[in-house]
Structure formats: structure tokens, C-alpha cells
Amino acid sequence: MVPTIAACQKSSLYLNEHVTRLHGPPASFFIHYWGGKPRHRGNTPHAHSFFEICYVADGAGTYIHNGITYPLRQGTLYCSKPNSSHHIESETGMLLLFVAFDVIQEASDPEVVQTFERLNRFHHLFIADAEQSAAVLTWKALIAYCSEETVDYPLAAEKLAHSLLLTCISTFARHGGSVTAEHASEPVYSEALKDAKDYIMNNLSHKLTLKELAQAIHLSERQLSRLLSEHLGLTFPSWVRNERIKRAAYLLAYTDINIEEISAEVGFETVHYFSKVFSDLMNITPAKFRRAVRGSELDFSLLHRYLQAAVNRSLP
To answer: C-alpha angle 101/5/48, rounded to 5°?
Structure first.
């Protein structure tokens, strides 16, 4: 049964407001965003630093990943890997569900972390027909529950969401056995940089210092500064600022949380200062950004264009 557009949108609003961190065992996750986009006709090529699992609930199209084209149809389940170039195209539009996340390594079993590292070396994570899989059935149950007029038991929604990610991981891992892994020397984030990102994402609402982060991941301040410069081309303040603004952009686009609350959620002391930093980096005020994205029916490609432009402006 295809979820209704209303159920997808209502559940996305609930999940983005209330289900942003999932705790194990055997794994804990930081959720960047949930989405349910109707009539999705495509987006521009982009990449991000996290995993994004997508399910085609209705319609058809194509998924282009690192130059390879895969057909999309109802029931297709796929995952975009960190730092991989990808986009989708559809002439008629698709009902697309998606969730983007990082595994919180220090709060997850080593076996799960190793599974993610192994998945990241597969050429693709793509299952043409997963309609009757545990992952898709769990996703549909999650949408149905979170689109109710009242979610009576928030913990039940969290458990369903946690089960969804775990079943997706195991489903991709099983199907990946027949896929040739990419060469082990493919560029990936170092473990130290992954630890640093996890720490920042878990503490965005707090004041962050280079000294505090360096101590948390057992590096000297000098080592951490060099790591950021060599791998990201950024200073510590620039990196933290970018992560705060990216998180704010997703909250503006995919939730109804007011701007003052978003400002506090991403670590700004005043909404005035948040608006100034957001405007300087994104070339648009938070309120206008929200209206622009909502006016394009939550156009995911528009959101990525804003973020990519912001990142480009922050680089030396």
C-alpha cells in the first residue's frame, strides 16, 4: 500500500522535530533529516558527508551515482554513500522517502561501525525491489504511526525509527555480498575526523572550543587544526559555523520549529546573531530561505544549491 502524501509530510514534520537522535544497542545514530517528497522530479548532482537512504514509494525515474545510471521504480531502496556524487531524474515525478544520518561511533558496537565501513566500500547500495523487505515494511509502519493525530507513545516512534535504520543496514549488507568492493585506498575521512564530526554534531547547541574538541578526541590542538586544514581546508571556527548553519537550513526547510528555537538548537546565543551569520553565509535571511524552499515544495535540490554555495564561499 502506498503511503498518502499527507501521511508522508505529517510524519516528516514529527520525525524532524522529535526523532533526531537514536540510541542503541547495537548502534546509535544522529539524524540529519527525514523527508517525504511528493512529485519529486529530480535534483542537481551533489554530495554530502553522511549516509542517505531513499525509498521510492510511488512513481519511476533514474538514480545517477558516480556516473552510473540505475532505474528507479516503486519498491526501490537505495543508499547514497558519504562523499559520492549523485542525483535523481524523473519525468513524471516520484513519491520519495528519505532519511539522512551518521552512526555515532563511540556509542555503537564495533561490529556495526565495521559494517558501515564495509558498506562504504561497495560500488553501490541499491536494491531494485525491496517492497516486501523488513526495511520497507518498517518504514511504512513508521509513517503510519507518526502521521496519527496524536503520537501517544514517542518512544514507540523512536524504536520504529531505530529498527528502520538497523534493518536497512542489514538488508544492504546482505545484498552487498555479490557486489565488488571499491579499492580500499578510496579517500575517506580519517577516524579522528569522524570522531570530531560526531562530537560537534552531538554538541551543536553548546559552545564549542578547539581545546574541548581536541581533548574529546585525544589530539593536541595543533594536530586537530592541521587535520582540519589538510582534509577540509577549513579553520575550526569555520567548520563549526558551517555545521551550525547547515543544521539550521535543514530545520528551516523540513520542520515548523520557529526561528528563535532553531537559533538556540544550533548554538547561537541570540536570534539576531544567528540571522546575521546565516545571511552572511547563505546570502539570504532565515525567513526568506524558509519561504523559498517551501515555495518550491521543499525542493531538495534548491536546499543543496544553497548549502553548496555557502560551503564554496567559506573556503579560502
So the answer is: 25
